[in-house]
Amino acid sequence: MERAAGRRPRPAAVRLHARGAGAVPADAALDQVAYFARLHGLDPAAAVGSARRWLDRLGLGERTGEKLIALSHGNQQRVQLAVALVHDPVLLVLDEPFAGLDPEAVDSLSEILFERAAAGAAVLFSSIVISKVALVIVGLIVFSA
């Protein structure tokens, strides 16, 4: 897998997406995503570039300057998904990634997850809505309590 420009060499990157984890409600969407990119080793310019790319890809390109607290639940979810994707991790662990997303965003995220898997990333996510899982399934593991 190719490294993003501006990234320092690191061990395999893993990102756990837990709704709202680490979010700072008073931060602008772009600042939030770029901050997490920096934590994963991207230099400042690469962090902002990657943050803009993922926010745009997730439909928030026009809202990068808005504070998280001012965004709808679905748009806050999109910001958190951008945080999970911003450093191109080789393993994505996503908790209910489709929760709060409109049908267009579900389609967009499904496409992104397919692309990440095609690029060699492992994608693991939980969902209680089987119809949404069927949109992105390549392999299936079912855990039951």
Task: Write a short abstract of this structure.
The protein is mainly α. It has 5 helices and 3 strands; from the N terminus they run βαααβαβα. The chain has helices at residues 29-39, 44-57, 73-85, 103-118, 130-136; strands at 14-17, 91-95, 122-126.
Instruction: Please estimate the helix content.
Output: 40-55%
Q: Catalogue the unreliable spans.
A: 8-12, 14-19
Order of helices and strands: EHHHEHEH
Helix count from the secondary structure assignment: 5
Q: What value does the Rg take, in angstroms?
A: 15 Å
Strand elements, count: 3
**CATH topology category name:** Rossmann fold
SS strand fraction:
5-15%
Specify the structural class: mainly alpha
Provide the CATH top-level class: Alpha Beta
Count of discrete domains: 1
**What value does the average pLDDT take?**
79
Whole-Å distance between the termini? 36 Å
**Biggest β-sheet, characterized?**
3 strands, parallel
CATH superfamily: P-loop containing nucleotide triphosphate hydrolases
Strand order of the largest sheet: 1-2-3
- The backbone outline, from C-alpha atoms, is globular
Q: Give the CATH architecture.
A: 3-Layer(aba) Sandwich
